[in-house]
Amino acid sequence: MARPLSEEKRKALLTAATEEVATSGAAASTIKIAKKAGVAEGTLFVYFPTKDDLLNQLFLALKSDLMGFLMKDYPIHADIQGKIRSLWTGFIDWGATYPNKRKALRQLGVSERITDSNKDVGEALFDNLHDVIEEGFKTGVLREQPLPFLSGLINALADMVLQTALDDAIKLDQYKALGWQALWGAIARK
Amino acid sequence: MARPLSEEKRKALLTAATEEVATSGAAASTIKIAKKAGVAEGTLFVYFPTKDDLLNQLFLALKSDLMGFLMKDYPIHADIQGKIRSLWTGFIDWGATYPNKRKALRQLGVSERITDSNKDVGEALFDNLHDVIEEGFKTGVLREQPLPFLSGLINALADMVLQTALDDAIKLDQYKALGWQALWGAIARK
Amino acid sequence: MARPLSEEKRKALLTAATEEVATSGAAASTIKIAKKAGVAEGTLFVYFPTKDDLLNQLFLALKSDLMGFLMKDYPIHADIQGKIRSLWTGFIDWGATYPNKRKALRQLGVSERITDSNKDVGEALFDNLHDVIEEGFKTGVLREQPLPFLSGLINALADMVLQTALDDAIKLDQYKALGWQALWGAIARK
Amino acid sequence: MARPLSEEKRKALLTAATEEVATSGAAASTIKIAKKAGVAEGTLFVYFPTKDDLLNQLFLALKSDLMGFLMKDYPIHADIQGKIRSLWTGFIDWGATYPNKRKALRQLGVSERITDSNKDVGEALFDNLHDVIEEGFKTGVLREQPLPFLSGLINALADMVLQTALDDAIKLDQYKALGWQALWGAIARK
DNA sequence: CATGAATGAGCCTTCATTCAT
DNA sequence: TATGAATGAAGGCTCATTCAT
Q1: Domain range summary for chain A, segments of one domain joined by +
Q2: Domain D51-187 in CATH 1.20.1560.10
Q3: Residue A25 region, left (φ>0) first, then alpha (ψ -120 to 50), else beta?
Q4: pLDDT in tens, C36-75
């Protein structure tokens, strides 16, 4: 009956938090985040009871955003290599398109303030990839390796590429290609 | 002549900083670091004029420590594959032996407070690898790729393995082996 | 016609306030009081325009509640000593029966936020005792002393007994008896 | 070797705290206390790590101050009645001379933030009175009653007198006398 | 050089109160 | 009338840094 929580404000807060966390890490100040989101300091705590809550929800939101991005153009009917290449491309493009999201996610991934259980939930979002990879194992296209190892591998490679090629579009394209070769060499059988 | 700076205290401070940064990231407090090092709060600033100085010097010290570790048993007369495998093993072993050093380095690598020029200096420490790799290119053992790309690749893979296999010695060995296969697949020609 | 204020909610708020004030003093938060009363934060301010209003009304309500308790079994036809003893017993029993009410009253009695005029009103509730005491003076049973002094005396003694014997039923009975002896010795002529 | 803690500042802080607590109770703000003491906000926390520490130490300091005041002119060679009368007078005079100390002590006595163990220590300061009172019991001058009951009695009566006669010197003298009669009547045998 | 007291900006959070719904 | 989102002041406390000793 009272004013409803505004999804708009929640988003503004998460967006502002993304930017601040991208540069200052988990040390980003709630005051700056609130101001950047255009709301009063206290309002932040209406939406996120605690700074840790904000950080954790941001972490999940970013993971989920990335997942959505990867799935958007996912080629359901492509072969294994095509599917994995799509994921690789998606990773790189997401990071290049939203550098702050990537930086924020990177910082949070290293932070003690994200609960272990949430870090797990973050991983779990990628469980959808299960099938592709399992299929790769069965058809013998991929070397058999534990799933977390494989997803960690993609993640690490993509992150490295984005980090290394930061602010350099040409290098980015070069590394994206090199990275794909490396990745495929790393996981394909033979 | 006044008492000279004590190398011992400097080291104690860096060691304490390593531990604090490992858990709290760049937000680690100078007070706690000083106390853990067994010196007074103000003493820290005799050795490091600024917290940022401390952080940057710690970053370099850790990179250098890692480098020293890698070079210790480096097989100068082995073939390319042997040399690179030694580096891989070294990376993993260093991280497993000094988890706090690795965690601290990881946190600092992501922090805004490490100057770009220092991040470059950090990379440069690995320039010694130039020769091995160039040799690999010439003999055709390695696919030709930019040096920073290659070192970033090793780094990223090793970090992923250590992170993923945290606190699980068995998994660590498994991943170390898998990681090596992946790495070699990623960089070897054909 | 609009919905009228609900007496039930008002009471719930005062009851909740009693509990909160008992433990946190005047620093008790309106939010917690509202929640404990089962109403929304804003609703509290429909019934009490200001936190100070709430506190002051609570103060009066508690005084009045105590007064009612004292009068319930008041022996109108007893002699002076019997009447005063009844008051004494009543005081102690009220405090033992409703420890939160007593604690809250104690806290509020010390608080700056209760207006002086209300503290006087609080005292005035006991004016009904006028007659008993005047009678005591006339018949020479009581030493002549100003009324506020006498009521303050009873109050202080009872409060001390309750406070000292907190959570110890046996001690409470002992102190109740001792207190009565002391009180009577303090006020009776000769 | 560094600047030593200044006893002067510690006292200034306790004095300032006394004044603030006298009017605002345990809700007194550390900032106001620091400012009133003429030191920076942070300095307060050099001397008292926590607001609760400040409050508890203030409580003990006030109790101790009162005790010192009572003992100053204590008539060691007087009879029981003389000794107790001296205590009574001392109580009243202390409260009249240092109204803020008394108000602060009153507020703290009711506050949840003073630990139970400190409240006990507070009581213990009065253990010195043991002997007088025991002597009173033996010689039959005093009715036999538990010590905490007796000290509570004196305390409560004195507090009531001071509170009731606040800001009225004439009334104060009158109540002081009446209070003594009442007290003696309350505790003396027969 | 070493110490740790002193400082005040800044942090996260709570709160009383207002007001759109 | 009842609700609870919105607000920004204020609170307790921490911190990097300075400086008297």
Answers
A1: 7-187
A2: no
A3: left
A4: 999 999 999 999 999 999 999 999 999 999 999 999 998 9
